[in-house]
Amino acid sequence: MSSLKHLVTPLRRPPSAEVQVPGSKSHTNRALVCAALAAGRSTLSGALDAKDTQAMLGALRSLDIQADMDTDHNITIDGCGGRLPTGPRTLNVNQSGTTGRFILPLLTLGEGPYVLDADSQLKSRPFDTLVEALRVLGATIDEDRLPTTVRQGAMVGGSVSIPGSASSQFLSGLLLSAPLFSGPTTIEITGELVSKPYVDLTLSTMATFGVNVENNDYRRFEIMPQPYKAVSSVIEPDASAASYFFAAAAITGGRVRINGLDESTVQGDLAFVDALAQMGADVTRGDGWTEVVGPEQLEGIEINMADISDTAQTLAIVATFASTPTTISGIGFIRLKETDRVNAVVTQLSALGIRAQEFDDEMKIWPGTTSGGTVETYDDHRMAMSFALLGLVHDGIEISNPGCVAKTFPNFFEVLDQLR
């Protein structure tokens, strides 16, 4: 754990700013998989250059897939047409859960053996649901967690069920590789599917590369064998990253506009601004932009954030500035992210003197102020970025291990300073 700390200085006045956030991690990594599996050369414009996307690029290069990013964040990738080199090969996805959960099904398209390894943080996170589903479909995989070895693929398709309460990345990983199985594949969802917008993003990205999936009300997905087509595609700005700046406007009574995100976005996390609107912020969507203006006083709300869980920590910080308590529900599954995000938020708010309480599937945040303190980030980029917002208003907020933001937003603190 890094001993470095970053002191966030309060703003002197409410911001009035247009902010450029980096490309979407979720969009970039999905597009990279589709491009890698296509036959021919694809170009991704405006891609994210961060640790999570570099992990994906590194994994693909370990499979002899040529992928290069230029200084303008454009990636050129020569796809393999679904034909992977035979093993043995070793891939390391570092801390990127998205990469690991997308690459594992992809490895079943080859003959192996392929060793899939990761940093210690990701080794503690679950992969068993995905591994079990792949085994049902015919894969031979050693372990239920990373590191593991894929020994035999030659996937012929079939039927499999996965719980909707598990990470949607498991479903997305299966969806991305299933078109290259030799026969039809049906994926049944048991229970209610969490994070539907991320599944929508997967299906939309696949469609961009010429692959269509039959979605039966998020209960059953049917995928026929079909090839990906090489294309040129534009990556949207990251809606999850944008949430911090929209929140900054809300808590300061300022104005922030993000270009490149509007009602046509394929990212569900832009719905975070609807939560801010419920709390009293003024939200305007234009052609190619979204703007938030903070109110004189925010109001607490009760909200289910199962579909936009990556912004739950951000809203928890906003909740401390409201006039009444806020309850955020539907988020029990984020306990299995980079850290237990429910417990981490409640623990750190409490340490700063702000009342907060956790439950199995929700957290409740009361309005409060703080005299400052050091925020433990647990090597979780979203803890660092969300709690930094407190420092825009309150003195003495120090973020430990600020470098962890490099996972998805390497220059976050520099962009945050643009609000000044």
Lay out the secondary structure.
Elements: E1 5-8, E2 16-19, H1 25-37, E3 39-45, H2 51-61, E4 66-69, E5 75-80, E6 89-92, H3 97-107, E7 114-117, H4 120-123, H5 128-136, E8 140-141, E9 148-152, E10 158-163, H6 168-177, E11 185-190, H7 196-208, E12 214-216, E13 220-223, E14 232-234, H8 239-252, E15 255-259, H9 272-278, E16 282-286, E17 289-293, E18 302-304, H10 312-319, E19 326-329, H11 341-351, E20 356-358, E21 362-365, E22 373-375, H12 381-388, E23 397-400, H13 412-417
Parallel strand pairs: 2-15, 3-14, 6-7, 10-11, 18-19, 22-23
Antiparallel strand pairs: 1-23, 3-5, 4-5, 7-9, 8-9, 11-13, 12-13, 15-17, 16-17, 19-21, 20-21
Helix pairs in contact: 1-2, 1-3, 1-7, 2-3, 3-6, 6-7, 8-10, 10-12
What is the alpha-carbon Rg in Å? 21 Å
> Terminal Cα separation, in Å?
30 Å
Shape label: globular
Tell me the CATH architecture of the largest domain.
Alpha-beta prism
- The unreliable regions are none
Q: What count of domains describes the coordinates?
A: 2
Identify the CATH class of the largest domain: Alpha Beta
Number of helices: 13
CATH homolog superfamily of the largest domain = Enolpyruvate transferase domain
Instruction: Report the average pLDDT across residues.
Output: 96
For this entry, what is the oligomeric state of its chains? single chain
Count of strand segments: 23
Strand content: 15-25%
Supply the key terms:
4-stranded mixed beta sheet, alpha/beta, globular, UDP-n-acetylglucosamine1-carboxyvinyl-transferase, Chain, 420 residues
